Amino acid sequence: MADKILVSHLLDDLAIKILVVEPGDLSAVGELLESADKLLDHAEVQQGAVLEKMVAAFKKVLEASIMGELPDSPENFDRLAQSVSFMQEASRNEMADLNAFCRLFTEIGFVLDAAEFGIKPPPQAEEGEIDSRFLADSELLAAFIEEAAEHLNSVESNILALEKSPGDSDIINTIFRSFHTVKGIASCTDLDRISTLAHATENLLDEVRNQRLVLGQEATDVVLAVCDRLQRMVENIQEVFEKGLEHYESFEVDDLIAQVGRVMAEPLTAPSPSPAGQGKVDLGSGDLPDFMQDADLVAGFIAEAFEHLEAIEVHVLDLEQAPDDIDIINNIFRPFHTIKGVSGFLNLTTINKLAHSTENLLDDVRNNKLTMSADIIDVVLGVGDYLRGMVQNLSDMLEQGPAVYKDFDISDWVGKVELLQAGGDLEAPPAPPAREETAPPFSPAESVAPVEKGAAPAPQAAAQEPPPKGAAPAKQKIGASIKVDVEKLDGLVNAVGELVIMQTMVRQNPLITGIADPKLNKDFGQLSRITAELQKTAMSMRMVPIRQTFQKMTRLVRDLSKKSGKVVDLVMEGEETEIDRNMVDSIYDPLVHMMRNSVDHGVQKPEDREAVGKPGKGTVKLLAYHKGGNILIEIVDDGQGLNTDKIRAKAIERGLMKETDQVSDHEVNNMIFLPGFSTADQITDVSGRGVGMDVVKKGVEKLRGKVELISTPGQGTQFLMRLPLTLAIIDGIIVRVGQERYIIPTTAIQESLRARAESYKTVQGHGETLMVRNSLVPIIRLSHVFEVADSCQQITAGIMVVVENEGRRRALLVDELLGKQEVVIKSLGGYLQDIKGLAGGTILGDGRVGLILDLAGLISASEAKGSCPLIPAQADPAQEGAEEKAEPLLL
Amino acid sequence: MSSQTVARDESGRGGMADLAGKYLTFALGDEEYGISILKVREIIGLMEITAVPQTPSYVKGVINLRGRVIPVLELRIKFGMPTQKYTERTCIIVVEVGTPTGALQLGMLVDSVSEVLNISAEEIEPPPSFGSLDVDTGAILGMAKIKGEVKILLDVNSIVGKGLLEQFNAA
User: How far apart are CA A169 and CA A208, in angstroms?
Assistant: First the structure.
């Protein structure tokens, strides 16, 4: 291992040195020679014959050029630099293109025979037989088909463009890149023939772009023929993918490869001008072993890798339930395989190595060379976590530059994996027969793994059975989805929101409302239907299934129950329920707290459960569904429920209620959400309940949702979380204060009423309060806090809106209620974002900006501001007679 | 104050060459000011402004600019001038400034907009020195002398950028 790393370091070193070397600078060439010598020493030990011979050839060329036997021209050094990259490939145990390597040396003038290396012809072993390996990873394959078709289409049009302006290096480069990409992704997906053909063509184009070859009529024809063939192959793969293996068609590629070879062998028809500038730059950057070169590719890999790692975690946890289920093992194997493939393609060697060794381990397991054990599960989970750290670091680097690069030492994990593997015989390639018996690789049941119901179906039957509810349909559609930048999507949603507002404005224009034309009315009706539809569609585009968030809970429950010595079954339903993607992150914390509560405190230990006649295995249900414009998330456990009496005692002790108060058990139970109530040590002694429940409530309120708790003693506890479907729209009451209009979120409003003079009290130290249903509620004069002029100062003349936030109730004095409206929330833009008491702005029906209140901020702002100079409630006798009784207003 | 100021001080008069270019000039009281045209997004007439509480007095509030909510500053107050009644020439210059969190649009309420001038490096002089007096010239890029008139060239970023941020954090 150490040698291998050393070799790769030496090679990197060599690659850099050769890039900076000046032709004719003998001492620099001498240094190169020294490096090559060193390399030769170590290559002998590690990499077997191929690398050693490559280095030896490299060294001979260097010696020859020092002796003046070979021209030390800049071109030759470019070629040498290229050869280093081949050596790097070889050192990574990849199939280096030795033919190309030899060709390089021949061009330099040093004849090297490929046969010396003992090269086998490219692996065409599966010739004739149906190569179904590529079907193993449907996701990757779908992506490949889509991408390859795109690239091939562009190649076609580019070649036609090239015929019009021959020699345009930009176009040639574009074509070259397309083939290069097709080659890369094809080799990731085990599509050997496509990859070989694309590779050969890529070499041809490389010659062209380095001006060693002129793309004449014949060559163009060949490239077009290759393109056609590749297109047909990709189409066939798509057919196989959609309809099944029987549609597979075997394509011959050797004839085209031979044609490509023939074209390349032709002597230069045009004298090559010195390939200065551009060619050199291209080669230089290609040689640097810098995996950050293609940020797009790396970013794609990062996103993909995170998904795969998540899938791995979920499946591993499934596997614990059914350790022999070959389907699940396959489901774990495949993401590792994909990560390995793509990371290899991107030169991410450490990730590649770790994924590869884990893949090997899993391969042994699924080929029955090893039996699944708790150790293996733990190691696979550990490797998953470690890989996640590495990928996270990559993503950090992409954002913040290479400075944040961390060196990950994978040898520890690789060691563990290899140790586990040591029991069995290894290094066997995936054995197709074994897999065909157990599960056809393209079985739909595997493609989207059902994570529902902890207990897995009978292993053998699973593949044949129709997929369970919620799994993907058997035939997958390709090209049915595109990736869109979130910003663009938000922009669309905003624009649609504006459209709806503008429509209302036009419609409410007095001139328009004055027209009594039935046609106009009908058209307006039609228009609003269309905009409503548009809004719905735009909104739904931001929605993602809640599945990912739920799946994270599986791991949590596993770890928690293991730690507390309980047996808990997590049942999930409605994972396909959709939720605003902006909310996904914010619901995670509350969910974790509630889950922890249910597992830690709700479900009892097995022996305790059996003592009360329940099955030893507890169940926690996690449900999600839509109801009345809200999304509801329930967490239900079958544990002991809350100890209401103790909570009541605690509440009385803390002065939250009086002993004589008639408070229902339900209300008492929900007191655990009060800030400070649950975090006290005593409450854990008392009922064993409630750590961080105020976090839950705060988190949910931030999303403008509500959380409630229903507990049945002895039967269990149910958390009910009600969230709005989207964060972009808020349901609010518009109120007027002076000339200003504010919007109060409806979820926070308890009631609104006209105050009577006798219910108004000033309390020492609390300022003004209002008696609402036998409790004193502090009054906030909005006009005072926001310094609005000309507003109603009389408590009895205005309207009191009673709001609740984090358990604090306040009565807001406003002039008037203007109505209820759904409004689109807008940021106040840049600097105005963090104003206390304001959550944002919105465009009201008349086109003016209205401000949305943030109650938490408003309450603290009013406390900071202190009470205003009191205006006694009875100051205006004229008003008083009119407003005799407190009349609740309808909302 | 800003790093830009420091850089300018070091480069002395030579730095004025960077300032040459097109400026939008506007009037505020008796003075004419100029801001780089590259910062200007558009000029709109006065429209209804929603006051935002808990902000410094020069923040007039927010407006609806075709669906976007953007803040509007009254430059008279910002520069410590007495306010005056709005006229039909009063308008809002919408500028775009770069912030660490991205581009930000802001409206600046001015008395009237004058013209767009092409100002060459020779016409620009560095901001005046007030000697030992403690005068903050951070927002002034330079003074342009055109046809005997002096126009004060302003750095939009330091008018609305840094100072604003500090005041808000204090508030």
Answer: 9
